[in-house]
Amino acid sequence: MTLSSSISMADACSRDWDVVVIGAGPAGTVAARQLALQKLHVLLIERKAFPRYKVCGCCLNQRALSSLQAIGLGAICEDLGAVPLNSFQMRFNGREATVPLPGGLAISRSVFDERLVQAAIDEGVCFLPETTAILKNSAEQDQTRQLELTQQGQPSGAVSAKMVLAADGLGHPSLQQCDDFESTVSQNSRLGVGALLASDDFSEYPTGVIHMAIHKSGYVGLVRVEDGRVNLAAAIDRDFIKQSGSPTAAVLAILQASGFPAFSEISEGSFKGTIPFTRKTLRPVGNRVFVLGDAAGYLEPFTGEGMANAIADAVAVAQIAPRGLVTWDHALEQEWLKKHHKITDGRLYWCRWLALLLRLPVAVGIGLRLFHLFPAVARPIVARLNH
Predict the structure, then answer these.
(1) Distance from the CA of 379 to the CA of which of 145, 174, 338, 354 falls in 20 to 30 A?
(2) Stretch 118-131: mean pLDDT, rounded?
(3) What kind of architecture, by CATH, is found in domain 9-57+109-186+279-351?
């Protein structure tokens, strides 16, 4: 199934919008749907065609699933045949440890995101794919925000809205002309690398398990999704990719060093990459603009924290944003900052510390031995990330 536009460019540019949402990942799409349910006129813009592949782990943890259930989207994953997850297996230098991971699901992003977009369209959201939106600077007293639209690299029109939600992922490219949304990038940030692969040896990558190959220069996560393929998502040091000669060679080196088998079909064309992803938007709110999901900040995730944060952000912003349609004030901005930080900061703290520990071979070795001998030790950590 391919999702096409539900509105023409000419029609989109001629309407008065309450909210324009940029980015049709979980954060943007769920927010658009929740706002449309409040009878607002919402335009959802996505620069890619659907279905589209995302460099991303494809795990939904219990927190994400609970959020979907609360807004009436709990049946989506079951309908799509999502794979139940039961454990998390780590390998490092031939050592191995497996810990329980109850309650999560694995679903490919191309299928999951497409179904979320359809759910938003069903509630009245207008969808405009294959379109790039750039937010223009504005004065603080302006009552609307203006966006320039391009398709296939050519200027195609402009839209205005009382409010804009930027949910367009790492680096929030839609805000590149606005000075109010500066983001910082960690000096030791890794690059994301991803692929969807067929497995030659099903026994090595069984269904229901998140596999993690750990290396001092990065890690590779693998999980089987609903169509039987293995989704691979890696976080790798830039210097190690250069040293290895390519992202493919770096992934293969990490798999081999950890003791996981490689895939015969892996080639240079198998992988997609990201910009350095450990980053944070210093102030994810401005005049009639909310920044959410990965666009607001990103750290290395492990068991689906990224999508869980995105969905929680979306539900929260849809509760706050409508109050700013008529009158925008700094009190509303402060309310969003507090809410956003409450949603993300505690869990990002754990992700930050786990990411740091995974860079220390001695700590990884000790941790795996401990988890192997006493699996219950890992339960508080898994619970903290998963709920």
Answers:
(1) 338
(2) 97
(3) 3-Layer(bba) Sandwich (3.50)
